[in-house]
Amino acid sequence: MGNLLYDQLFAPHSANPTVFLSQPDGQDITYAAFVARAAQIAHVLTANGVEPGDRILVQAPKCVEMVALYAATLQVGAIFLPLNTAYTKDEVSYFAGDATPKLLVGSDSAVEALSEIAHEVGATLLTLNSDGSGSLMASVDAQPETFPTAARGADDLAALLYTSGTTGRSKGAMMSHDNLLSNSVSLVDEWRITDADRLLHALPIFHTHGLFVALNTALLSGATVVFLKNFDLDMLFAELADATMLMGVPTFYTRLLADHRLSPDIVSTMRLFISGSAPLLAETHIAFTERTGHHILERYGMTETNMITSNPYDGDRRAGTVGAPLPGVEVKVVDPDTGANLDPGEVGMIEVRGRNVFSGYWQMPEKTAAELRENGFFITGDLGSFSDDGYLSIVGRAKDLIITGGYNVYPKEIEDVLNTVDGVLESAVFGVPDPDFGETIIAAIVPETTAGVSEDTLRTAVENGLARFKHPCVFKMLEALPRNAMGKVEKKKLRDAHS
Ligand code: AMP
């Protein structure tokens, strides 16, 4: 039967002398050495009782060994469950209780909390630190460099990724081998990734973007990954000189633009800048082109679905849009109440179907049934509209929609107006409960400089650009917007702080 994902991503590289992960400190690891390392870790996993179908919960710092642990998990037929390193003991305890992993892997600094959790759920605890040390690796060198790969088919689970859970408890999205493989195959093709590429990797690897979009596509094509522990501008500029691709969140691009070193010369070997995970402001897209000559390619996806749409590699990469559905992915915009298809230009719920779409939420059949239709369409929770020529634009999350005095107001429409006001760096618009109107509108504004921006200017801009019911009642000046690890603005935090 083979092992669908392992056989495609890792097995072909067992004798490949190309560098897979290149690190700024000069510690490069070739594909062949990586595959051997992963096999050694696979032996450690089985020695610790891990069997096919078991979950391995990993809350470890970004390091080469964590990537090898991902490969080893697949090779033994287990399910990889990476967690945000920022999660607290209570949060990790919830995930462990829900997923009942056989093995927990975390850093020595968290060993006290993790051993309590491991004890609670009857799991074994091993440690892994950012320098690659820890009990997971202690006996690795003594293990054989090959491992008999466990059989796993298309529908078997490869990973369990918990959604960020901005409303209620996080849910574990069950990702099958075929969900992950089919999407990576499409992306490699769409973005023309080859073994000549050097991909700058500065994303976390506990999230679908850094883990699957970036690493799986590199593995599939044999590209070299320049593996940075985090987004550090000095390191990024040092590595840009001979890189060919960057996958980033919008904040990467605003930070690059704010740095005087960004110039056409420094990006002369680059062929592709990709952005996703949060909306890229049209003005960032445009400013980046003016500064570097490159059109950022914006794509759209989510944990449960992998990647859904992409702007074209060849052709018009349109600012403010996320492009067209990837091959094999069906996307429709429907009336959220009736489910009826809407015409281009009309805003509605985005639904998606394809091999990329997950198999459901771990042990949550009701939540699965509420979001995954019987006909296979997943209700994304994102609102958007198609243009006449098939480009999708995202308007925002449905739960962020403001209903004031019976009118639907899309925060993005107001943010777009505010962001063009001189002196505004960025804005976030949200609704708070109001006894009269149901909700009233608040705009959080981050001024460009300490000189600030006057409320009058902001009021004039919205009065000139928007119908009266869309005018924010209150403008709050903030130094920065609250964002999660992927650069998404946390509107729930804003609502909680200002209602
Ligand atoms: P996650 O599951 O953490 O990857 O978050 C997925 C959500 O991020 C989507 O449902 C969208 O709301 C948002 N998102 C991802 N990519 C984009 C994009 N290019 N533009 C706007 N929102 C995006």
Describe this entry's structure for a reader.
- Among the domains are: 4-153, ANL, N-terminal domain (Rossmann fold), CATH 3.40.50.12780; 402-498, ANL, C-terminal domain (GMP Synthetase, Chain A, domain 3, 2-Layer Sandwich).
- The strands form six sheets. The chain has a nine-stranded mixed β-sheet with strand order 2-1-10-9-11-12-13-14-15, with helices on both faces. A four-stranded parallel β-sheet has the order 4-3-5-6, with helices on both faces. A four-stranded antiparallel β-sheet has the order 16-17-18-19.
- It has helices spanning 4-9, 31-47, 64-75, 89-99, 111-121, 135-138, 177-190, 208-221, 233-240, 250-257, 282-292, 365-371, 411-419, 455-465, 491-498; strands at 19-22, 29-30, 55-59, 79-82, 103-106, 124-127, 157-162, 172-176, 198-201, 224-227, 245-248, 272-275, 297-302, 306-310, 324-325, 330-334, 348-353, 378-386, 392-397, 402-404, 407-409, 424-434, 438-447, 474-477.
- The longest helix is centred in the N-terminal third of the chain and has 17 residues, at 31-47.
- With 499 residues, the chain is α/β, with parallel strands linked by helices.
- The chain is built from 15 helices and 24 strands.
- The model has no long low-confidence stretch (mean pLDDT 95).
- Bound molecules: adenosine monophosphate (AMP).
- Adenosine monophosphate (AMP) binds at residues 163-164, 208, 276-279, 298, 300-303, 322, 380, 382, 394, 397, 486.
